[in-house]
Amino acid sequence: LSFGRPHSPPPSLLHTLTPSPVVLPTSPSISKTPSTLSNCSASKPSRSASKSSKPTAPRSNNPLLKPLQLSPALQRIVGVSELSRAETIKRIWAYIKENHLQSETSKRVIVCDEKLKAVFGQDSLNFLEISRLLSPHFIKE
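Predicted structure:
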């Protein structure tokens, strides 16, 4: 055994061990020049062009965006007689934050003033209860 130089194959087998060059098929539309490779995104349609063809108005079949008639107690808080559920909840939250009605110890708890007591019927409530307690104040036509 020799631990020196690795054994090389005999010259008669050398031609079978050398790899032949691999030729990959190329597409005629793909060019290998650096200028076209850097401009690959130019052939894609721009996102802004595809978005401009879509309608910008919200879909009218969304029940959260449908304006509903509000109860008189809820009208005193939000200031209008007809509003969507989503917008009503936004305005309730604006009223709560404007009047500092969140508990100091836990911001999840809403401490009701006289107007909110007329709507919710409670002295305090968890913020997750707001949408459930607002449901009776939306008058269905």
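Summary: The mean pLDDT is 79.
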